[in-house]
Specification:
Strand order of the largest sheet: 2-1-3-4-5
CATH architecture of the largest domain: 3-Layer(aba) Sandwich
Shape: elongated
Number of domains: 2
Structural class: alpha/beta
Number of helices: 8
CATH class of the largest domain: Alpha Beta
Protein backbone atom coordinates (compact mmCIF):
# COMPACT_ATOMS: atom_id res chain seq x y z
CA UNK A 1 0.00 0.00 0.00
CA UNK A 2 1.17 3.50 -0.81
CA UNK A 3 1.02 6.34 1.72
CA UNK A 4 1.54 10.08 1.22
CA UNK A 5 2.96 11.91 4.24
CA UNK A 6 2.47 15.69 4.09
CA UNK A 7 4.59 17.04 6.94
CA UNK A 8 6.92 20.04 7.06
CA UNK A 9 8.93 18.92 10.12
CA UNK A 10 11.82 16.96 8.59
CA UNK A 11 12.42 14.88 11.73
CA UNK A 12 8.77 13.84 11.95
CA UNK A 13 8.68 13.22 8.21
CA UNK A 14 11.71 10.93 8.43
CA UNK A 15 10.32 9.16 11.50
CA UNK A 16 6.96 8.46 9.90
CA UNK A 17 8.56 7.33 6.65
CA UNK A 18 10.88 4.92 8.44
CA UNK A 19 8.19 3.40 10.65
CA UNK A 20 5.68 3.08 7.82
CA UNK A 21 8.26 1.38 5.60
CA UNK A 22 8.99 -1.05 8.45
CA UNK A 23 5.32 -2.02 8.26
CA UNK A 24 5.48 -2.66 4.52
CA UNK A 25 4.13 0.62 3.15
CA UNK A 26 5.56 2.51 0.20
CA UNK A 27 5.90 6.15 1.25
CA UNK A 28 6.03 9.47 -0.60
CA UNK A 29 6.57 12.72 1.29
CA UNK A 30 5.84 16.41 0.82
CA UNK A 31 7.00 19.34 2.94
CA UNK A 32 4.46 21.97 1.90
CA UNK A 33 0.73 22.04 1.44
CA UNK A 34 1.03 22.92 -2.23
CA UNK A 35 3.45 20.09 -2.95
CA UNK A 36 1.29 17.63 -1.03
CA UNK A 37 -1.84 18.67 -2.91
CA UNK A 38 -0.01 18.28 -6.22
CA UNK A 39 1.15 14.75 -5.35
CA UNK A 40 -2.33 13.81 -4.10
CA UNK A 41 -3.84 14.92 -7.39
CA UNK A 42 -1.27 13.33 -9.68
CA UNK A 43 -0.67 9.97 -7.97
CA UNK A 44 -2.83 7.23 -6.51
CA UNK A 45 -2.47 6.66 -2.77
CA UNK A 46 -4.15 4.36 -0.30
CA UNK A 47 -3.99 6.95 2.51
CA UNK A 48 -2.72 10.45 3.29
CA UNK A 49 -1.23 11.48 6.63
CA UNK A 50 -1.73 15.25 6.66
CA UNK A 51 -0.18 17.73 9.09
CA UNK A 52 -2.27 20.78 9.91
CA UNK A 53 0.48 23.41 10.15
CA UNK A 54 2.08 23.58 6.69
CA UNK A 55 3.76 26.25 4.55
CA UNK A 56 1.79 27.67 1.60
CA UNK A 57 -1.47 25.80 2.32
CA UNK A 58 -2.54 24.54 5.73
CA UNK A 59 -3.86 21.03 6.26
CA UNK A 60 -7.50 22.10 6.39
CA UNK A 61 -7.23 23.73 2.97
CA UNK A 62 -5.37 20.77 1.47
CA UNK A 63 -7.94 18.31 2.82
CA UNK A 64 -10.84 20.43 1.59
CA UNK A 65 -9.29 20.77 -1.89
CA UNK A 66 -8.76 17.01 -2.12
CA UNK A 67 -12.40 16.37 -1.25
CA UNK A 68 -13.59 19.02 -3.72
CA UNK A 69 -11.74 17.13 -6.45
CA UNK A 70 -14.03 14.16 -5.80
CA UNK A 71 -11.42 11.94 -4.11
CA UNK A 72 -12.49 9.79 -1.17
CA UNK A 73 -8.96 8.67 -0.29
CA UNK A 74 -8.62 8.09 3.47
CA UNK A 75 -7.04 11.10 5.23
CA UNK A 76 -5.77 11.20 8.79
CA UNK A 77 -5.01 14.73 9.97
CA UNK A 78 -2.14 15.31 12.40
CA UNK A 79 -1.87 18.44 14.54
CA UNK A 80 0.05 19.86 17.49
CA UNK A 81 -3.22 20.95 19.07
CA UNK A 82 -5.80 18.74 20.71
CA UNK A 83 -8.40 21.52 20.78
CA UNK A 84 -11.95 20.33 20.09
CA UNK A 85 -12.62 23.09 17.54
CA UNK A 86 -9.61 21.94 15.48
CA UNK A 87 -10.84 18.36 15.54
CA UNK A 88 -14.31 19.44 14.46
CA UNK A 89 -12.88 21.58 11.65
CA UNK A 90 -10.64 18.75 10.41
CA UNK A 91 -13.48 16.24 10.33
CA UNK A 92 -15.82 18.80 8.77
CA UNK A 93 -13.50 19.44 5.80
CA UNK A 94 -13.25 15.71 5.12
CA UNK A 95 -10.61 14.06 7.33
CA UNK A 96 -11.40 10.49 8.40
CA UNK A 97 -9.58 10.84 11.72
CA UNK A 98 -7.60 13.38 13.71
CA UNK A 99 -4.48 12.63 15.78
CA UNK A 100 -2.81 15.13 18.11
CA UNK A 101 0.95 15.35 18.62
CA UNK A 102 2.75 13.88 20.40
CA UNK A 103 1.43 10.43 19.55
CA UNK A 104 2.79 6.91 19.60
CA UNK A 105 3.29 5.28 16.23
CA UNK A 106 1.44 2.19 17.48
CA UNK A 107 -1.65 4.34 18.09
CA UNK A 108 -1.34 5.97 14.67
CA UNK A 109 -0.93 2.58 12.99
CA UNK A 110 -4.00 1.25 14.81
CA UNK A 111 -6.01 4.28 13.68
CA UNK A 112 -4.82 3.73 10.11
CA UNK A 113 -5.99 0.11 10.21
CA UNK A 114 -9.34 1.20 11.64
CA UNK A 115 -9.82 3.69 8.79
CA UNK A 116 -8.79 1.08 6.22
CA UNK A 117 -11.49 -1.24 7.59
CA UNK A 118 -14.25 1.29 7.07
CA UNK A 119 -16.50 0.17 4.21
CA UNK A 120 -15.86 2.73 1.47
CA UNK A 121 -16.22 -0.28 -0.75
CA UNK A 122 -16.89 -3.43 1.21
CA UNK A 123 -13.91 -5.76 0.91
CA UNK A 124 -13.38 -9.23 2.24
CA UNK A 125 -10.32 -9.91 4.35
CA UNK A 126 -9.69 -13.15 2.43
CA UNK A 127 -8.57 -13.06 -1.19
CA UNK A 128 -8.26 -16.33 -3.08
CA UNK A 129 -7.86 -18.06 -6.40
CA UNK A 130 -7.67 -21.82 -6.89
CA UNK A 131 -6.17 -23.10 -3.60
CA UNK A 132 -4.17 -19.91 -2.95
CA UNK A 133 -5.50 -17.82 -0.04
CA UNK A 134 -4.27 -14.43 1.19
CA UNK A 135 -5.50 -13.11 4.54
CA UNK A 136 -5.20 -9.31 4.54
CA UNK A 137 -5.67 -9.04 8.32
CA UNK A 138 -3.40 -11.84 9.51
CA UNK A 139 -0.94 -11.09 6.67
CA UNK A 140 -0.70 -14.78 5.86
CA UNK A 141 -0.56 -16.56 2.49
CA UNK A 142 -1.23 -20.27 2.01
CA UNK A 143 -1.60 -22.61 -0.94
CA UNK A 144 -3.44 -25.85 -0.36
CA UNK A 145 -3.19 -25.01 3.35
CA UNK A 146 0.61 -24.75 3.32
CA UNK A 147 1.99 -21.39 4.53
CA UNK A 148 4.14 -19.44 2.06
CA UNK A 149 6.65 -16.86 3.28
CA UNK A 150 6.56 -13.61 1.32
CA UNK A 151 8.46 -10.40 1.82
CA UNK A 152 6.34 -7.31 2.53
CA UNK A 153 6.69 -6.12 -1.04
CA UNK A 154 5.81 -9.55 -2.46
CA UNK A 155 2.76 -9.67 -0.19
CA UNK A 156 1.62 -6.22 -1.36
CA UNK A 157 2.17 -7.24 -4.98
CA UNK A 158 0.16 -10.45 -4.60
CA UNK A 159 -2.62 -8.62 -2.74
CA UNK A 160 -2.92 -6.06 -5.53
CA UNK A 161 -3.03 -8.76 -8.21
CA UNK A 162 -5.70 -10.71 -6.31
CA UNK A 163 -7.83 -7.59 -5.87
CA UNK A 164 -7.73 -7.28 -9.66
CA UNK A 165 -8.12 -10.99 -10.40
CA UNK A 166 -8.74 -11.70 -14.08
CA UNK A 167 -7.81 -8.13 -15.03
CA UNK A 168 -4.60 -7.05 -16.74
CA UNK A 169 -2.55 -4.97 -14.30
CA UNK A 170 -0.14 -2.67 -16.06
CA UNK A 171 3.40 -1.92 -15.00
CA UNK A 172 2.32 1.67 -14.37
CA UNK A 173 -0.43 0.54 -11.98
CA UNK A 174 2.06 -1.51 -9.99
CA UNK A 175 4.49 1.41 -9.83
CA UNK A 176 1.72 3.69 -8.55
CA UNK A 177 0.33 1.37 -5.89
CA UNK A 178 3.22 -0.79 -4.68
CA UNK A 179 6.32 1.37 -5.08
CA UNK A 180 7.09 5.01 -4.32
CA UNK A 181 8.29 7.78 -6.63
CA UNK A 182 11.96 6.86 -6.17
CA UNK A 183 11.56 3.69 -8.28
CA UNK A 184 13.42 4.01 -11.55
CA UNK A 185 10.77 3.31 -14.23
CA UNK A 186 13.45 1.68 -16.39
CA UNK A 187 14.65 -0.75 -13.71
CA UNK A 188 13.67 -4.44 -13.66
CA UNK A 189 12.51 -4.32 -10.03
CA UNK A 190 8.91 -5.20 -10.87
CA UNK A 191 9.92 -8.07 -13.13
CA UNK A 192 12.24 -9.44 -10.43
CA UNK A 193 9.49 -9.35 -7.81
CA UNK A 194 7.04 -11.06 -10.16
CA UNK A 195 9.61 -13.78 -10.85
CA UNK A 196 10.26 -14.33 -7.14
CA UNK A 197 6.54 -14.40 -6.40
CA UNK A 198 5.95 -17.00 -9.09
CA UNK A 199 8.70 -19.20 -7.68
CA UNK A 200 7.07 -19.13 -4.26
CA UNK A 201 3.42 -19.68 -5.14
CA UNK A 202 3.70 -21.81 -8.28
CA UNK A 203 5.13 -25.31 -8.08
CA UNK A 204 5.44 -27.94 -10.79
CA UNK A 205 2.28 -29.71 -9.63
CA UNK A 206 0.25 -26.54 -9.25
CA UNK A 207 -1.85 -24.54 -11.68
CA UNK A 208 0.03 -21.49 -12.94
CA UNK A 209 -1.65 -18.34 -11.67
CA UNK A 210 0.41 -15.28 -12.65
CA UNK A 211 0.50 -14.69 -16.39
CA UNK A 212 2.47 -12.16 -18.42
CA UNK A 213 0.46 -10.26 -21.01
CA UNK A 214 3.02 -9.11 -23.61
CA UNK A 215 3.11 -5.36 -24.04
CA UNK A 216 0.46 -4.80 -21.37
CA UNK A 217 1.42 -6.19 -17.96
CA UNK A 218 0.34 -9.10 -15.74
CA UNK A 219 -2.78 -10.79 -14.52
CA UNK A 220 -3.61 -13.46 -12.00
CA UNK A 221 -6.11 -15.93 -13.40
CA UNK A 222 -6.81 -19.65 -13.73
CA UNK A 223 -6.85 -19.27 -17.51
CA UNK A 224 -4.27 -17.56 -19.66
Amino acid sequence: MRILVIEDDSDMQDYLSERLQEHGFAVDTAGTGSQGLYLARTNEYDMILLDYSLPEKNGFTVCEDIRKSGSNIPIIMISVTDAVNYKIRGLTVGADDYVAKPFSFDELHARMQAVFRRPRVMETTLLSIDDLVLDTVKQVVTRDGVPIYLTRKEFSLLEFLLKHSGVVVTRGMLMEHIWDVTLDPFSNTIETHILNLRRKIEHASKVKLIHSVPGRGYKIDLAR
